[in-house]
Amino acid sequence: MNYCDNQNLPDNQPYKIYEFKKTNQEKIPGYLVVSTAKLNVETEEHNSNRYLSLVANKKLFNINDGQAEPSTQEMIEKIAKTLESSPEPEIIINIHGYSSTPSDTETGCKKIYEYINTSIQQPNKYIFIGYRWPSENPTKTDESGSFGQKLINALSSLPTLLAINLALGLTISIWSAIALLFLNILSNSAVHFFTAMLILSGIVSAIIFTLIILRLSTYFRDTYRATNYGVTDLVELIRQLDYTVKLPRNKRIKLSFIGHSMGCFVVTNVIRILSDVFDVKSINKKPDSDIGNVFRLGRLVLVAPDIPVESIFPGRANFLRSSLRRCEEAYIFCNEGDLALRFTSTAANYFSFPARTRISGYRLGNITVKHFNNKNDLVGHAPRYGVVNLQKQDYGKGYRLDNPYKYLEIRFSSSEHRKIEEITKMSEEWVQPADLFTYFDCTDYKDDRMDKIGIVSSAIQKPAINFGNYILLTLAFIRKSINNRDPQGIDTHTGYFGGGFSQKAIYELAFLGFQGFLRSLSIEGDESEQISVFSQRCQEKQIQVILAPQIYQQKTQR
């Protein structure tokens, strides 16, 4: 049925599409899709177009001087033609996270594009799409201007009531402070009065300044953009492709995603919208992977996901379970030392997320794998690396996979850590959300064990990271922010894309799936032997892995 209002897309589409320039013999085409939503609703159209022209770097994309850019409709049709001619078409979409500049997005997507064309090279199968939703960096110059201009905008846009309270609070604070400087001429009652006024006005001013700082952090502004622009524009792109591509009934396009940080929020909400809640199979809790006319949900890779930890808790309130069941494979990359999620995101969501306890307020990227070997979880035992939930069968050959909830936890300190199975009630009647994910805990991950520090954390191999360790980790993070090449610097939130093994795992799990990833590691043998060798490889990198039983139960003879 024709559900598109117009076959020809108008020029003012919610997104623009640019094709990556082929420099050598790239066989996998790549595109950057840029949402046309503006960072500020008041931005004039010509300024928005100028911003979009800056996004499309002519050194990276097929944009010729003096020639008009291809229309959105032409690019959609070009992608559709490639998909129609492919015997096994697949689309892999990469979505960036919070505070990503246009150049950050372009560089990251170009890196993936070059990697897959160097390492995978399967022509007539894959199409890579990098997707940019309108994200604002707090300190860098963009459509909102420089940091100084953003500060001016934050002050000038204060609601009247807050502006009046701020002005009065600052005025009273200044005059009270001046009066207190002359204590020798004031009576005791006057001292008490001015001290009280100084404290009260300081509290009022501090509250308003806190709101200004939260605005300048752009976190909640990016959350709004991700929800109302990023999700809807990406859904529209997939909808237009679904309408344009013509395939025989027995042929489907596999649709896979790589999401980082807040980009995981965009991805999971897109999947929720794409899932048909009125599908009979979905109502019977046995949905398949097919969506729309031509698509089939494939692999989902979430890196440092900035979404509620609630998403893997069983129960009726879980908002991802029904849609995640449609994905063939799902992966989470996390680490205990992720400063952005452990402190910044949890603090920012403190007064907005409906949680009664501190544990429930953590993000999915804060989930870690149990660090202990003995059943009593005594402090001081060495962590176990590799596939932690891989257990030998009691009888015969092969392995089985234990329930992930027994191994997943949230750690606050070496003396305070809670297993997921202790936090939530289990129900054997339902497929548990945690069973759908494979977890890569990269807290102690090193590409070479001789390295002094890890890729995304200090890799101190302790039962938990304590306060002093976090101070040192923060200093290492600052060094990395100042000088990206500093050997003592650590990027705790984005470093996954810089590690050799982690980068390979993220990209190849998304493009090739688990079995293809094992083959790329040159792991031979039957399925049980492959997983055993894979566990050894992860052990060498000091990575803890929880394999998803629901996905691999046949492979492991569960």
Please give a structural write-up.
The protein has 558 residues and is an alpha/beta fold. The protein has 16 helices and 16 strands. The protein has helices at residues 45-55, 72-85, 102-119, 147-156, 160-180, 188-217, 219-244, 262-274, 280-283, 321-324, 339-348, 420-423, 467-482, 500-520, 527-540, 549-552, and strands at 15-19, 30-35, 90-95, 126-132, 253-260, 290-291, 295-303, 329-334, 368-369, 386-387, 390-392, 399-401, 408-413, 416-419, 438-441, 544-546. Strands 1, 2, 3, 4, 5, 6, 7, 8, 10, 15 and 16 form an eleven-stranded mixed sheet that branches. The chain has a three-stranded antiparallel sheet with strand order 9-13-14. Strand 13 and strand 14 (416-419) form a beta hairpin. Helix 5 (160-180) crosses helix 6 and helix 7 (219-244) packs parallel to helix 8 (262-274). The longest helix has 30 residues, at 188-217.
Which short descriptors sum up this protein?
globular, three-stranded antiparallel beta sheet, single chain, eleven-stranded mixed beta sheet
Short characterization:
This protein has helices at residues 45-55, 72-85, 102-119, 147-156, 160-180, 188-217, 219-244, 262-274, 280-283, 321-324, 339-348, 420-423, 467-482, 500-520, 527-540, 549-552; strands at residues 15-19, 30-35, 90-95, 126-132, 253-260, 290-291, 295-303, 329-334, 368-369, 386-387, 390-392, 399-401, 408-413, 416-419, 438-441, 544-546. By secondary structure, it is α/β, with parallel strands linked by helices. The chain is globular and about 90 Å long.
